[in-house]
Amino acid sequence: MVRTQLQRARAGETTPAMKRVAERENRDPEFVREQVAEGQAVIPANRVHSALDPMVIGREFATKVNANIGNSEETSDPREELRKLHTAVHYGADTVMDLSTGEDLDAIREANVARSPVPIGTVPIYEAVKRAGEPAAITRELLLEVIEKQARQGVDYMTIHAGVLMEHLPLTDGRKTGIVSRGGSILAQWMEENAMQNPLYTEFEAICRMFAEHDVTFSLGDGLRPGCLADASDEAQFAELDTLGELTRTAWDHGVQVMVEGPGHVPMDEIAANVERQREVCDGAPFYVLGPLVTDVAPGYDHVTSAIGATEAGRAGAAMLCYVTPKEHLGLPEEADVREGLAAYRIAAHAADVANDLPGARDWDDALSEARYEFDWRRQFDLALDPERARESHDQSLPGDNYKEARFCSMCGAEFCSMRIDQDARAVDGEMTAIDGGTDLDSSRAGDANLPPTGSHDTSRVPDEIEIDGVRFTPVSSADD
C-alpha cells in the first residue's frame, strides 16, 4: 500500500508535496518534513485530488484560513457552489469545507474537488443523515460507506466527531445553548435513541485504515463546543477534548495525519488558555478553531466578533482559523458573505503572524505604509488585502484619475491632510529627518500567505471544464472578475 505523507515523513522522505509547501512558506524542506513527521503539522492531500496545490497547517507556519461553503435543504445549485468556491479561493481561503446538506451532494462534492486548488474538507455525518432519513436510522455500515466513498472522491480532510461519548452527554445539562454542533447534536440523538456508544468512536480504527489508504487527514470535530460565552470552558467541552487527545494518538499509530477542532464562543480572556490546553492534551497536533466569538450580542456582525477572537487564538498558537461570515446564526452565506468573512479572517491570520514575529510577516504592512505616506494610490490599491474594495472606497468620493496623483483623500481634504503637512514641514525646515522606506517584497522572507496578492494558489492543474453525471461544468468567475 502507498504510504501517507506522515509515514513517508517518518521514514525520512521529503515528498513533492513537502517541497512545494516549503516553497510556499519560504522554509527549509527538511523543516517541513520534521514538522509533519512529529505530527505538529499536516499537509491535507488526498492522492486523487489532482488539481491540488499542496499547503501546510501547523503553528510554526503561516496561520491559515478555512472558508465554509455548501448548500442547504432550501437551496441546491452546483454552479452556485462552484461560484462560492471560486470566490473563496480568489479572496485567499487556504482550505474550503463543503458543508452541503441539500440535494446533489455527490455532484457538488466531485465538482468542488475537481476544480479546487486548495484542500477540500467535508463532514460525512451530514450525508449519512440525508441518506438514512433521520439520525437514529444511521447504521455503522452506512457511516463507513459514506466515509469511504468521500475518500475515494478525493476529499482531503474530514471532520469526524468521534470524541462525543455517551458519558459526556449529561455534562451538557444546564448549558444555556446545549449542543450547537450539527454533528454533535446528530450523534447525541443517535446515542440517546439507540442506547449505544458513538459509532464514530467504536469504529475509529476502521476509519483510520480508510484514511491511510487514501491519505485523508482527520479533523477531529468538537461536537460539544460551546455555543455561547456562558458555556465556554466547561466540563463537557474539556471531557471531549481529552477523548480527542486519545484519538489523535490512535490515528498517528495508523500513520494518519490529524488536526483538532476547537471552539466556538469563548471570552477573550480564556482563549489563550484553551489553545494551550489543546496543545498539551493533543501532543501538539495542529489546532483548527471556529472563531472564537468573543461576544454574543452582534448578529449580523459575527465576522467581526469572531475575527477578534481568531486573532487572539492565532497569536496563542492556533494553526488554522475557520472563518465566520455576517450570516452566522442567521442564514446560508452567499457569495458576498464569503468575501466579507474571508477579508475579516485574512486580517486576523496576518495580524497573528505579525504578532508572532513570523519571518517577514510585517514586510507587507511596511510596504503598504510607505505607499500610503508617498500618496502612491495605485500601489496602495495593489498592496491591499482586497484591492477591489480599497479602490472602490477611494473612488466613491474622488473618482477621477487626477485624484490618483493627489496628496490627500476625501477624509481630510488637501488643507488638513496630516501626511501632506508633515511632508511639507520636512521639506521646508530641513531639520526633520527623512522617512525610512524601500521595503522590497520580492526579497521578503515571508511565505505566500503573508504577501500580496491573496488567492495566489497555483491553478495550472484546475481543468477548464468537467463533466459529472452527464452535467457539464464550465469555468466560473466571481461577480467582480
Automatic annotation (TrEMBL):
<dbReference type="GO" id="GO:0070284">
    <property type="term" value="F:phosphomethylpyrimidine synthase activity"/>
</dbReference>
<feature type="binding site">
    <location>
        <position position="126"/>
    </location>
    <ligand>
        <name>substrate</name>
    </ligand>
</feature>
<feature type="region of interest" description="Disordered">
    <location>
        <begin position="1"/>
        <end position="29"/>
    </location>
</feature>
<keyword id="KW-0479">Metal-binding</keyword>
<keyword id="KW-0784">Thiamine biosynthesis</keyword>
<keyword id="KW-0408">Iron</keyword>
<dbReference type="GO" id="GO:0009228">
    <property type="term" value="P:thiamine biosynthetic process"/>
</dbReference>
<dbReference type="InterPro" id="IPR037509">
    <property type="entry name" value="ThiC"/>
</dbReference>
<feature type="binding site">
    <location>
        <begin position="181"/>
        <end position="183"/>
    </location>
    <ligand>
        <name>substrate</name>
    </ligand>
</feature>
<feature type="binding site">
    <location>
        <position position="97"/>
    </location>
    <ligand>
        <name>substrate</name>
    </ligand>
</feature>
<feature type="binding site">
    <location>
        <position position="288"/>
    </location>
    <ligand>
        <name>substrate</name>
    </ligand>
</feature>
<comment type="pathway">
    <text>Cofactor biosynthesis; thiamine diphosphate biosynthesis.</text>
</comment>
<feature type="binding site">
    <location>
        <position position="68"/>
    </location>
    <ligand>
        <name>substrate</name>
    </ligand>
</feature>
<keyword id="KW-0411">Iron-sulfur</keyword>
<feature type="compositionally biased region" description="Basic and acidic residues">
    <location>
        <begin position="20"/>
        <end position="29"/>
    </location>
</feature>
<comment type="similarity">
    <text>Belongs to the ThiC family.</text>
</comment>
<feature type="binding site">
    <location>
        <position position="409"/>
    </location>
    <ligand>
        <name>[4Fe-4S] cluster</name>
    </ligand>
</feature>
<feature type="binding site">
    <location>
        <position position="265"/>
    </location>
    <ligand>
        <name>Zn(2+)</name>
    </ligand>
</feature>
<dbReference type="GO" id="GO:0008270">
    <property type="term" value="F:zinc ion binding"/>
</dbReference>
<feature type="binding site">
    <location>
        <position position="417"/>
    </location>
    <ligand>
        <name>[4Fe-4S] cluster</name>
    </ligand>
</feature>
<dbReference type="InterPro" id="IPR038521">
    <property type="entry name" value="ThiC/Bza_core_dom"/>
</dbReference>
<feature type="binding site">
    <location>
        <position position="261"/>
    </location>
    <ligand>
        <name>substrate</name>
    </ligand>
</feature>
<feature type="binding site">
    <location>
        <position position="329"/>
    </location>
    <ligand>
        <name>Zn(2+)</name>
    </ligand>
</feature>
<dbReference type="GO" id="GO:0051539">
    <property type="term" value="F:4 iron, 4 sulfur cluster binding"/>
</dbReference>
<protein>
    <recommendedName>
        <fullName>Phosphomethylpyrimidine synthase</fullName>
        <ecNumber>4.1.99.17</ecNumber>
    </recommendedName>
</protein>
<keyword id="KW-0862">Zinc</keyword>
<dbReference type="Pfam" id="PF01964">
    <property type="entry name" value="ThiC_Rad_SAM"/>
</dbReference>
<keyword id="KW-0949">S-adenosyl-L-methionine</keyword>
<dbReference type="InterPro" id="IPR002817">
    <property type="entry name" value="ThiC/BzaA/B"/>
</dbReference>
<feature type="binding site">
    <location>
        <begin position="222"/>
        <end position="225"/>
    </location>
    <ligand>
        <name>substrate</name>
    </ligand>
</feature>
<feature type="region of interest" description="Disordered">
    <location>
        <begin position="434"/>
        <end position="464"/>
    </location>
</feature>
<keyword id="KW-0456">Lyase</keyword>
<feature type="binding site">
    <location>
        <position position="412"/>
    </location>
    <ligand>
        <name>[4Fe-4S] cluster</name>
    </ligand>
</feature>
<keyword id="KW-0004">4Fe-4S</keyword>
<dbReference type="GO" id="GO:0009229">
    <property type="term" value="P:thiamine diphosphate biosynthetic process"/>
</dbReference>
<feature type="binding site">
    <location>
        <position position="161"/>
    </location>
    <ligand>
        <name>substrate</name>
    </ligand>
</feature>
<comment type="function">
    <text>Catalyzes the synthesis of the hydroxymethylpyrimidine phosphate (HMP-P) moiety of thiamine from aminoimidazole ribotide (AIR) in a radical S-adenosyl-L-methionine (SAM)-dependent reaction.</text>
</comment>
